[in-house]
């Protein structure tokens, strides 16, 4: 209400609240306001509101090391042609189904088994969001999962995969071919993470027909169950074992 452009205030606000250990109750409060304006469960936390931007900035600050240990080894491997001259291939799935399948499988596997490394603060925020969503849409059993996946998959892992240089997972912007591969991996992770429900409508949202064919291979219950278990784990407040990978968080530089 006060700032002309509220997004300029988000980063300093998040850093201040993190420093004073007040971020979780603040995010819960603004998320509750956000949910009052949300009419449909399937659009939960999809816009750029104050709540979603605060969680985005929090994940960038607190989840930097978590991203590094989870994704960097796989991202470093990406650079081999995945869709060699896609337009010239007949059918295009020939090259796609091998390299891309390998990368998507690997990235997906690393993510769903990474919950032990997820920072406690992120888990506390996801726990709040999950319960607020379930309270707002009590008749939708999936909304508690989509509330968490809309952040951890769509706004955290998928974004880091598509632009690894901005998350310090790669030293510079990848070349065009690698960038294309990363974009397809990111799309795959977004779709798999959308509470794992690969419906016909979701598959038809792909412009490329080969992506629809590719995704049919992921229509198995084991993928849905893996996503569900991961979301359960990262939105739980039960104490986690020390993972031995935590790093001090830099709230202020310069």
Automatic annotation (TrEMBL):
Name of a matching Pfam family:
RasGAP
Q: Name one GO molecular function term.
A: GTPase activator activity
Q: Which UniProt keywords apply?
A: GTPase activation
Q: Where is this region: Disordered?
A: 232-254
Q: Which InterPro entries match?
A: Ras_GTPase, RasGAP_CS, RasGAP_dom, Rho_GTPase_activation_prot
Boundaries of every Ras-GAP domain copy? 5-194
Top-rank taxon: Eukaryota
The family database entries (PANTHER family) matched by this protein are listed as: RAS GTPASE-ACTIVATING PROTEIN 2, RAS GTPASE-ACTIVATING PROTEINS
Name of the protein this chain belongs to: RASA2 protein
The organism named in the record is: Aegithalos caudatus (Long-tailed tit)
Q: Which gene encodes it?
A: Rasa2
């Amino acid at each position: 209400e006060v700032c002309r452009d509220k997004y300029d205030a988000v980063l300093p606000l998040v850093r201040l609240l993190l420093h004073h250990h007040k971020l979780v109750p603040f995010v819960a409060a603004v998320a509750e306001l956000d949910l009052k304006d949300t009419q449909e469960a399937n659009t939960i936390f999809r816009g750029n509101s104050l709540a979603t931007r605060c969680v985005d900035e929090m994940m960038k600050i607190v989840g930097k090391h978590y991203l590094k240990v989870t994704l960097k080894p796989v991202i470093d491997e990406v650079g081999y042609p995945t869709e060699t001259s896609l337009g010239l291939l007949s059918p295009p799935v020939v090259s796609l189904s091998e390299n891309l399948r390998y990368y998507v499988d690997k990235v997906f596997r690393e993510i769903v088994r990474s919950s032990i490394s997820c920072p406690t603060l992120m888990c506390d925020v996801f726990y709040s969001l999950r319960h607020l969503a379930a309270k707002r849409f009590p008749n939708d059993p999936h909304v508690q999962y989509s509330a968490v996946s809309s952040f951890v998959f769509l706004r955290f892992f998928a974004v880091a995969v598509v632009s690894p240089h901005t998350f310090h997972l790669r030293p510079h912007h990848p070349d065009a071919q690698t960038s294309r591969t990363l974009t397809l991996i990111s799309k795959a992770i977004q779709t798999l993470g959308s509470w794992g429900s690969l419906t016909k409508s979701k598959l038809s949202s792909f412009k490329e027909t080969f992506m629809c064919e590719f995704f049919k291979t992921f229509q198995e219950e084991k993928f849905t169950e893996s996503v569900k278990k991961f979301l359960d784990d990262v939105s739980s407040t039960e104490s986690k074992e020390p993972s031995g990978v935590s790093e001090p968080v830099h709230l202020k530089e310069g």
